[in-house]
Amino acid sequence: MNTDLSFLHLIKEASLVVQFVMLLLMVVSIASWTFIFLKRKELARAVEITDEFETQFWSGDSLVELFKKLSAKDFAPEGIEKIFLAGYKEFSRMRQAGNVEPVVQVESAQRTMRIELSRELDRLDEHLAFLATVGSTSPYVGLFGTVWGIMNSFMSLGSVKQATLALVAPGIAEALIATAIGLFAAIPAVVAYNRFSTRLDRLTGRYELFVEEFVVLLQRQAHSK
């Protein structure tokens, strides 16, 4: 019998509780890998948009031209573009209202950008908590299956006259598979969570720095005649 068949045979012969633990961990692992690929693509897209926007923002074009260009895009604005559009739209609305102090104009735009920034970060942070949970709990779930399987193996020795390693080895091997599957689910989730958290922190810093720099430009514009 080859290795793959032996592995599948051990899973098939495991107790119902251990099989349920294995199935749960496999489902969690598949979901985890799905979120990993989606989040990787999402964060890469957010960084790409930020790079392109900052190039346009500091290219020397006026804020009005940049606002019109982004508003006329065929695709909906994303990431830092939404923060800029929300802030400049609010700033323009306050200026057109008349009799509004420059400080109030800038503060209103800043609050609007902060709100949009929070929404964007909440969107990017989605599913990271799931990866953290998988990474921290999967080994313990797998360990539960292992303990349960080993416990059943030793309990079965009570019905035999002579206990040998050959009697308990299959049961222990079945149980240890649960731990292996738990680690298989946990390790990628932990690595992905740490990597994505670092990238999100860097992106957050860029967003916040942009908001501060944009506020300075709006202050100059608000006090200009």
TrEMBL record:
<feature type="domain" description="MotA/TolQ/ExbB proton channel">
    <location>
        <begin position="81"/>
        <end position="208"/>
    </location>
</feature>
<dbReference type="Pfam" id="PF01618">
    <property type="entry name" value="MotA_ExbB"/>
</dbReference>
<feature type="transmembrane region" description="Helical">
    <location>
        <begin position="171"/>
        <end position="193"/>
    </location>
</feature>
<dbReference type="InterPro" id="IPR050790">
    <property type="entry name" value="ExbB/TolQ_transport"/>
</dbReference>
<dbReference type="GO" id="GO:0043213">
    <property type="term" value="P:bacteriocin transport"/>
</dbReference>
<feature type="transmembrane region" description="Helical">
    <location>
        <begin position="16"/>
        <end position="38"/>
    </location>
</feature>
<keyword id="KW-0472">Membrane</keyword>
<comment type="subunit">
    <text>The Tol-Pal system is composed of five core proteins: the inner membrane proteins TolA, TolQ and TolR, the periplasmic protein TolB and the outer membrane protein Pal. They form a network linking the inner and outer membranes and the peptidoglycan layer.</text>
</comment>
<keyword id="KW-0812">Transmembrane</keyword>
<keyword id="KW-1133">Transmembrane helix</keyword>
<keyword id="KW-0997">Cell inner membrane</keyword>
<protein>
    <recommendedName>
        <fullName>Tol-Pal system protein TolQ</fullName>
    </recommendedName>
</protein>
<keyword id="KW-0132">Cell division</keyword>
<dbReference type="InterPro" id="IPR002898">
    <property type="entry name" value="MotA_ExbB_proton_chnl"/>
</dbReference>
<comment type="similarity">
    <text>Belongs to the ExbB/TolQ family.</text>
</comment>
<comment type="function">
    <text>Part of the Tol-Pal system, which plays a role in outer membrane invagination during cell division and is important for maintaining outer membrane integrity.</text>
</comment>
<dbReference type="GO" id="GO:0017038">
    <property type="term" value="P:protein import"/>
</dbReference>
<dbReference type="GO" id="GO:0005886">
    <property type="term" value="C:plasma membrane"/>
</dbReference>
<keyword id="KW-1003">Cell membrane</keyword>
<dbReference type="InterPro" id="IPR014163">
    <property type="entry name" value="Tol-Pal_TolQ"/>
</dbReference>
<dbReference type="GO" id="GO:0051301">
    <property type="term" value="P:cell division"/>
</dbReference>
<keyword id="KW-0131">Cell cycle</keyword>
<feature type="transmembrane region" description="Helical">
    <location>
        <begin position="128"/>
        <end position="151"/>
    </location>
</feature>
